[in-house]
Amino acid sequence: MASVDTSPYASKPWLSDYGSIPHSIDADRYPNLISMVDEACEQFPEKIAYSNFGSTLSYQQTLELSKNFAAWLQHKIGIKKGDRVALMAPNMLAFPVAMFGILRAGAIQVNVNPLYTPRELQHQLNDSQVDTVVIFAAATKTLADIIENTSVKHIVVLQLSDFVSGINSSEIDSRLSNYVGFDAAIEEGKHLTVNDIEITGEDLLFLQYTGGTTGPSKGAMLSHRNLVANILQYEAMAQEITEWGNEVVMTAIPMYHIFALMVNTLTYFRYGATNILITNPRDMASFVAEWSKWQVTVFTGVNTLYNGLLRTEGFDDLDFSRLKICIGGGAAVQEAVSNKWQQATGQHITQAYGLSETSPVLHANPLSKNDFNGTIGIPIPSTEIKLLDDNDNEVPIGEAGELCARGPQVMPGYWQCPEATEKAMTADGYFRTGDVATMTAEGYFQIVDRKKDMILVSGFNVYPNEIEGVVAEIPQVTECACVGIPNDDTGEAVMLFVVKNDNDLNANTVIEYCRKELAAYKVPKQVQFIEELPKSTVGKILRRELRKIN
Predict the structure, then answer these.
(1) Are 550 and 483 in contact (CB under 8 A)?
(2) If you ran DSSP here, which 8-state letter would residue 430 be given?
(3) DSSP 3-state assignment of 475?
């Protein structure tokens, strides 16, 4: 007699709420991401693809310029299939051109935050073994500080003025001499022909670095098939309310962040959308002024971004008549913020959930529903989810367990980290997210805690061990530990506890040191000196006790 599967997850109770959403997608429908890009350019050649600072690029222009850059990469500096090329830039017209050029050349793009400190950049470049960097001019000082400690041989410098009129170029660090301007590379590439590269779905597309809780950050290997799958999965969720060729998407989340990269930059490119790139979303007044020029249909953001816009003068006066999708990711959306957003725009914020390792989306609330339920929604098509206890046993419905996922969007592993990859996967191939969740009988999931001690600052992952490692370098520090604390502006902020061996050490000194070594969002907001850190009997620092102190 055949055994009966009594798993509460095998029956996929969430499918009952799918409606017209297909239960699965064909992850092999396109051989690679480039074929999907080419299809969009052929279908919408004259449509505006990207807009920034009042200048635009059509789909045809984006295609031709990226081909020119791909040809330059191949013929002028010898980029071959599988080479890693770092792209370190904010939202700007040059970003998608450079990206599509890198990928068309057959290279693997390493996405780099342009606000990284020299220490962070050096680790990422060396770990990914990059010898070519495509970098925003304003970030060249960071590269110059550490280039001698890397294998970088080729530098291509992007300017905000590339393809944009009326903007001055930024200064390039004088210590860098062997660089080429992006505009010059594009011009040279006009006279060259791109070599066709055979790219399969299993070939790597991106290295998306994610912080490590027990050491340096690791590169999540994302394949062409991973991204194609996640784009098609999103399409399945959004099909009822997507108008091909008529969408206007506002992109304020950085394009190097996997959320904006997959949803805004790639998925809506497939739809023939016009993508409005916001280079500096912290300038809320300018952000609102740019929004006023467009009838936006889709907006994605983190909770703090939504909250900031609601507080900005003039936002309530914008035209929201065509706005139909507002997605919140990167951090939990607060119900109060969603309610205020709905009052201002007519749309609630739809929560979704994912990670760098999953390309990123695993869950979403049905996009055709305009409500807020406090959950991350249901698993998207072709995605299997189960919640496990510490012994890898499935927990019953309603009980908390670690959320584990399997599907075509899940990475094959971490770059050159087989041990970390093995640790991150269950025996049957599910990825361990590190987040603790519960599931309702209807298949809706809610994140209730984090198994890891990650801190979420404005949607960015901040890992305590990294900060503690930096602070420990200060001679006057004996021990330290940090936790996340609630913050109205950033969702969470870093609270650092320090045991010092020199009474002259003060909080300002610690914070200033961190500013030199860490990206701004990782810098502790508060520093508290204590006599000793709470520890277990085996000497493990008890962060839960530290949270009680604050």
Answers:
(1) yes
(2) -
(3) coil
532 with 539: CB under 8 angstroms?
no
Residue 51 zone, left/alpha/beta (φ > 0; ψ -120 to 50; rest)? beta
Residue 255 in tokens: 């394009």
What whole-number distance in Å separates Cα of residue 91 and Cα of residue 70? Answer: 20
Rounded-to-integer distance, Cα 174 and Cα 48, Å:
36
SS3 of 402, please? strand
Closest among 197, 270, 196, 198 to 229, alpha carbons compared: 270
Q: List domains and CATH numbers for the chain.
A: 57-199 (3.40.50.980), 379-450 (2.30.38.10), 455-549 (3.30.300.30)
List CB contacts of 135: < 8 A, sequence separation 6 or more.
86, 88, 89, 114, 143, 155, 156, 157, 158
What is the β-pairing status of strands 325-328 and 361-364? unpaired
CB 158 within 8 A of CB 94: yes
Examine residue 360 and say whether the peptide bond preceding it is cis (omega within 30 degrees of 0).
Answer: yes
pLDDT band at 58 (very low <50, low <70, confident <90, very high): very high
207-240: b or e for each residue (b if 16 or more CB lie within 10 Å)? bbbbbbeeebbbbbbbbbbbbbbbbbbbbbbbee
Pair of tokens at residue 286: 């300018």
Cα distance between residue 351 and residue 145, in whole Å: 40
Query: What digits encode the pLDDT tens for the residues 243-258?
Result: 999 999 999 999 999 9
pLDDT digit string, tens, across residues 351-406: 999 999 999 999 999 998 999 999 999 999 999 999 999 899 999 999 989 999 99
Each residue's pLDDT tens digit, 511-520? 999 999 999 9
Give Cα separations from 153 to 133, 136, 268, 325 (angstroms). Answer: 8, 17, 34, 43
Which distant-in-sequence residues (6+ apart) come within 8 Å of 281 by Cβ? 252, 253, 287, 305
Q: In whole angstroms, give the CA distance from residue 53 to residue 167.
A: 8
pLDDT in tens, 417-474: 999 999 999 999 999 999 989 999 999 999 886 677 778 899 887 878 789 889 988 9
